Model the fold of this input.
Amino acid sequence: DASSPSASALLSGVLAAQRELSILERQASGNRRWLALREELQRLRDEDARQRERIIMLRREHADAVQAAKWEVEDLARRASEAIRSSALAGPAGLPPSSAGEPPDAIPSATASNDGGGGIVPAEVGSE
Done:
């Protein structure tokens, strides 16, 4: 049969082509994976650059906020110091600055009144 060797050769050629195609597909698949990995690497490098810029911006914002807080604390400390100094110059609380150092007028005693203002009131004799 003359057709048998050519069929066998044809089958052998088809099988060799399939093997070659399989090898090429694996290489292409590997190339696609490498391409995907390269693309992912580039994406990560771009993201890294954006994050570094963000870090710089956040550090600047933080430094500005710290400086503003420092100025605010210094201002509050200065104002508190001024308030303490001016109250010390004014004299005792409730007295105008001109009367500082003068004896206060006689203040009525709460215990001398019977108006329920917290003073001690003697009990009436015979009432129980």
